[in-house]
Structure formats: structure tokens, C-alpha cells
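A common beginner's mistake is to predict each chain separately and then try to dock the pieces by hand. The better habit, illustrated here, is to supply every component at once so that their relative placement is modeled jointly.
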Amino acid sequence: MKDNFETNEDFAIKLDKENPLSNFRSKFYIPENKIYVDGNSLGLMTKESEKSLLRVINEWKSMAINGWLEAEKPWFFFSEELGALIAPMVGAKPEEVVATGTTTINLHALVCSFYNPKENRTKILADVLNFPTDIYALKSQVLLKGYDPAKDLVLTPSKDGRFLEEKEIVELMTDAVALIVLPSVLYRSSQLLDIPYLTSEAHKRGIMIGFDCSHSVGVIPHEFNKWDVDFAFWCGYKWLNGGPGAPAFLYVNKKHFNTYPGLTGWFGNNKETQFNMSIEFEPANSAGRWQISSPGIIGAAGIEGALNVILEAGIETIRKNSLLMTSYLIYLIDELLTNEPYNFTIGSQREQNRRGGHIAIERKEYAFEVCEALKVSGVVPDFRLPNIIRIAPSPLYNTYHEIWQVVNKLKNIIDEKQFKKFIKS
Ligand SMILES: *Cc1c(COP(=O)(O)O)cnc(C)c1O
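With all components supplied together, the output reads:
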């Protein structure tokens, strides 16, 4: 790919002309005068989301309680309906996915159902590079079952603080491991783990495995059934553009539908008998049984519109465009910003099938100050300690010309020493 790119501005414009998704930008609200490359933290609002949100707000206004069964998309079935809508994007059956809770809550709900330590098999295997909330939650799950996180939560180390070695994870899959929970894409470096390989190695050893796909669903296709993943969960507000604090999703492989959920609540009941109000819980025969409470319908409405935009674009086309965007970004950094005095380096995998949708740009000195200057110049990136500027070009709403501008702004910031005014003495 590298050889086909050029560093000039006209080339960026040419890439935009060839972009099969270029007409999707107009489906989003783009913050004025900003280059928004932070869609892996909070995706932008689609006009479709605005419509689905307004529809639900109006239904609340006009129908009140009757909206549960009489709304255009009856609220009572809305979580399951959103699960079915997203299922093809993750390679799952419609009944294996449900929109519910939030990421950390879903982790708790699933891990407390599938972590059954006994005898010598007592450990959860995770990794040191996961998003902290996942580790906090896993620690508490180990404690809740009466075990000791210092011994029973095993974290795969990282040699360089950026990447994990799949082989090393597999070496840690010992007879003492009861459950494995890993991220699909690492939130800092963007490394995409080999989910099918890790899943098959776990299963060879009789270990259950689940993935946090917060940084991959919406930008990468998944094949949960083909890979035979036991369970997965992911958030709705990053690449899925569902809105701040939007409901998350969970996937449970059909073969586990007979597992009794660890955190039960009435929305996990079989829908047909839920309103019999029996005090005997009768779990739904679907991923829906892992729901706990009444769904937040207003938040969920934001997801509906956003999902329809992603489905219209097609996840394969999205991935293809995303890879071209990140390859182009890497190329520009390599060509323009690696030498003195720029000294930027790429902290993400260069192999396409090993990286997610964002790129980590590192700089040994003044990375934070450079990022502040970049913000002042009109770019919305984000910064991750210790020295990482994350750039997440959205294949749905960013342009190649914006990527070109981000790199040239970084160049200016160094050329003109603009970052110096952000140095705290
Ligand atoms: C974004 C993200 C979360 C967020 O957790 P919430 O419960 O939604 O606040 C959790 N885990 C990972 C890996 C994430 O990327």
C-alpha cells in the first residue's frame, strides 16, 4: 500500500474522491471548525440517531405507559430488537445479542455467570494492558467468589507496554485457569488480538473465554459464532456512535443459554411470563436472560439510528476504508514526522490484520504539550499516558484531507515550536 501513497495535498483530495463512503459524512453532525478524530472515545451523532431519539421522546410525550407495547418499536422488546439489528455485524444469531447495561456492568453480569472457580481451577486470566475498569471488575469478581486477586487474577505481561504476545497468553492458559477475559483491540496501542486463535487454544484446554470488544465493534467485522467465542460485551458510544453513556451490548453463545445468570432481574425473565409477576424467575431462552433492569429506552434510541447508518455502509466496507485511512496516516507520519526534530513514532501494529481503527502516535518528549497544541489548532484527538496521541479516523465521517491536515498541523507545531507555551515550568 505504502508505495501508492503520496505526501501532497492533492493526493489526499484524490483519496476522498475515491472513498466509497464519502457520502456518509453528511449523515453526521460534525462539530464546527473541528477535525474530530476521537470517535473511538465518543462517536459523533448521526442525523438518524436524532430522528430515533425524537421519535421515542414524542412517544413518551403522547403515549406514556402505552409506549411499552404500542410504540413504533415497542419499548418492551427494544433491547432484543437492537441486539438482533447488530447481530449480523458480529457474526451472531439474533437471539445471542442484546442491548443492555453498560460495559462494566455487562462484564460483571457475564463474568459472575461464567467464572466458576473450583478445586484447582480458580484463576481468571486477563492482561496488564486492558482498560482499567475491566481489571477492577475482574478483581472484585475474584474476591466475590472468595479467592485472592493477587493469586487468582493472572495478568499477561507486556514487554514494551504497547503490545501483547498471543503465544505468551497461551502459555498462561494452565490447568489452574477457569476463565479468560481479554480485549479485542487494546485501547492504547490499537493492537487487535487474534480472537479465533486465542479462543481455539482456550477451548483445547477446556477454558471458557470472553472478549471486551469496545474498541472493535463498529469498525471491524466479528465472527463470534464461527470463532466459537463463549461471550463478549462492548460499549455503544465509541465506534457505534450511540451517544454518551448509551447502552452497551452483550453476546452469549447459544450453547450457554442454559447457564443461570449470576445477576438476575426481572428483565431477564421470559418475556411471555414476565408480567405474570411470579416470584419464581423464569430466565429467557436467549442472551436476554442476562438483562437485569428496565432498559433505558431514551439512551437506546440513540443506538438505533446510529446502527442503521453502519448497516447501510456495511461493516466490510467500513473496515476496508478504515484500514486505508490508518495506512495513509502511518505513511504520512513515516514520511514527514519521524526524523529530527519531529521524532514521532508509530506505537501501533503495522500489519493490517493486527490493528484496530485508531493509531497511537508516540513522542518521547512533550507529547502531552504537542497534543494540547494540536487541540488549539482545531483537532480533537485524545491523549493517553504516558506519551501517546491517539488519532482515530472514522471511516464514516472523516476525510483523507482531514488526516493530511492533522499530520501537517503536527508538523507545524514542531516547526514553529507551538507546543512550548504549554510546558509548565
Ligand atoms: C470504553 C471501554 C470501557 C468503558 O466502560 P463503561 O462501563 O462503558 O464506562 C470498558 N472497557 C473497555 C475495554 C473500553 O474500551
